[in-house]
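Office hours follow-up: a student asked to see two folded examples consecutively, so here they are.
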Amino acid sequence: MQLYPDVARLQQKPRVLEGHLTLRESEERFRLLVEAVQDYAIFMLDTDGHIKSWNAGAERIKGYKSAEIIGQHFSRFYPEEDLKNGKPQHELEVAAEVGRFEDEGWRLRKDGSRFWASVIITAIKDDTGRLIGFGKVTRDATERMQAQKALEIEIAERRAAELRLQNSERSLRELSLHLLRTQDEERRRIGRDLHDSLGQYLTALKIKLDMLALPAGAPTGEVNAELAECVRLAEDSIKEVRTISYLMYPPMLEETGLQSAIQWYLDGFSARSGIKTTFEVGSDFGRFPRGVELAIFRVLQESLTNVHRHSGSQVAHIRLLSKNGTVTLEVKDGGKGTPSLLLEQSGPDWLGALGVGLRGMNERMRQLGGRLEVASTEEGTTVRATVPAECSSEQAQSA
């Protein structure tokens, strides 16, 4: 009866031996695989950090042959600053405590050159949980690090370029607004000088000419005709000076408001250009800050100038509305329109393609928190300027 268990054990022994042989073969294949890997440095450390194995990848990346490095401490791969900080020992302590340690940093080759390493250290323990060593895998990530660094530099340079562009655009906008303000002040000064100085001289000249024609027994015939012609020229000069003065800076804009100034301007525009105009204004339209009224009036001037010069239209329709806290001016003509391709290709800064004047008006609108829109079809072009009815005193002055 005792013979049978012995036979069973004898029968099981070949299978156990076969299993051990298979395991050894598997371990040998794994060892050969690790040793043959070229792209990763894979080696074992004892519990104190001394090197116990070395693969072909480690030799390629770090430059040491197996006989030169086995038994050496792995800290020799670290630069001097890391040795002073105790980094190698710290990495082993963390790996032993939590099971693994992962890091990227500079490492040294045999020839003293540096490379950027991606490192993983894994604690190896036996079945009882006792630490028996470490496995270390190192990859040369220098190219990736350099590419990432180059990308970061490129991104930083792009951001700096964008910031410079924004600052440049802001400076140009401020310069544009400054020029507009300077232009308005210059127009106002010249307009007043024309009216108050040159206008007065011309008026005095007309009075003198009238007096020469009044006395009894004054020369007749040709002399009187010449005097009459001089009087007429003086009257025309006075009218022209007054018109130019008012066009440069209409006094009624400050005295009676935007509605009156627009009506006066439209009457003169129709007389000069032959273009008929219609004017629609809300019954409750009142006064607004000086900057708002001036900006709207300048848009009207520029828009009608474009109608006269470019549209070929014989009519212009003007609407002036105040609604929901905004002031809106709309100028619509019946001309040939602006080519749609021009509007589509001009991009966000499309006004620059349509003329310096409109671009300046757009800057006025932006400064006041408003906007300028241009819509064009085969039936004509519509310019619409919308601006908040209330703005700060700083905005009103800068506009």
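And the second, which I mentioned at the end of office hours:
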Amino acid sequence: MKKVLQLALGMLTAIGGFFDIGNLVTASQAGANFRFQLLWALALGTLMVILLVEMSGRFAAVTKKAIPEAVREHFGVRVWLVPFIVLVFLHLLTMAAEIGGIAFALQLVTGISFAAWALPVGILVWLFLWRATFSAIEYSTASLGMIALCFVVAATMHHPPRGELLAGLLPSLPSDDATKYWLYAVSIIGALIAPYMFYFYSSGAIEDEWDQSYLMVNRIIAVTGMAFGAAITTGVLIVAAVVLQPKGISMDSLNQTAFMLTEVFPFWGFVLFAASMAIACLGAACEVTLSLAYLVSQTFGWRWGQSLEPKTDARFALTYTVGILLASLIITLGIDPMKITIYTMALNAMALPVVSIPFLLLLNDSRLMRQFGNGIFSNLGTAAIVLISLVLFVVSIPLVFLGG
């Protein structure tokens, strides 16, 4: 019964919890600029995230070790140092993007600049983490985040042409603006495979005391949850393609997305958009902040765990406190959350080889994983992820500096 309950709650968390400003912005821009052409990038990213999430949960359940701890032990501090620095940087940028997303949703409702909301939003996230347990954060934000299914409903009601949708699942070359096309493609994949998700998910498995008996639960959560999360992102892309693209709106500003839902929901569309954005970003902000605290604490061997009292887990709490402050200050400077998001997602893709390859190698260590290591299918998937990550690394470098 306990496993059935955790399966249901885990699927809810995965469905409602892995949709954030990265998915919203990248999918909206892709749809507004290239209609359904970039659906293939979303499908590819979904397959990658399913494999990576399943492997990170399996690793935690079998070894009872956090990924940073295991990489440091098996490859040494020098090997782990570069991925650690890259991950801290990406976590801070992602936190800033999520806080900016909440602040922008509040700007839509109140008319007050998002920069003015940054510190109050940061304090809200901090209070939530300070007072709530891991399960409370996980399930409450995920449950509320289900409001984002309104994008799926809207996409269905627009009746998009099936032929174009199927054609979009096949990789194609852009007819114009190739730099922007590939920047959006890389950013979509980067949004789906954001490193914080794997560290949050695997650390959560340890917090929930998973063992080998949870391997099937982990697999179902990874496949079903990530697929539903991708379905919401697909809904966003379709709505942007149908609503924004015909109007010639290229989505250079988040303000242009605010009325995406009003054609299907004339009265509630604006409210649903603002609420979906705020709640999704709040859930993601909590998760990425916890992921940063997990990452730092596990790297330095500190005591860690969101379910512990802050007074007995001081360094863990101090890490997320400092992280929230730094991320909030970035938004307070008035830097556009959408700009931060699109480049951070591209950087996620660029960093994938650095942060994933050591972990993927551990999954084939028979001494560590025993009979639960990667099989033929998982190794083929691993090889594909490594190859794709290397290609993304090469493609992302010029795009991050030339795209815009």
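Two things to take away from it. The mean pLDDT is 85. DSSP finds 17 helices and no strands in the chain.
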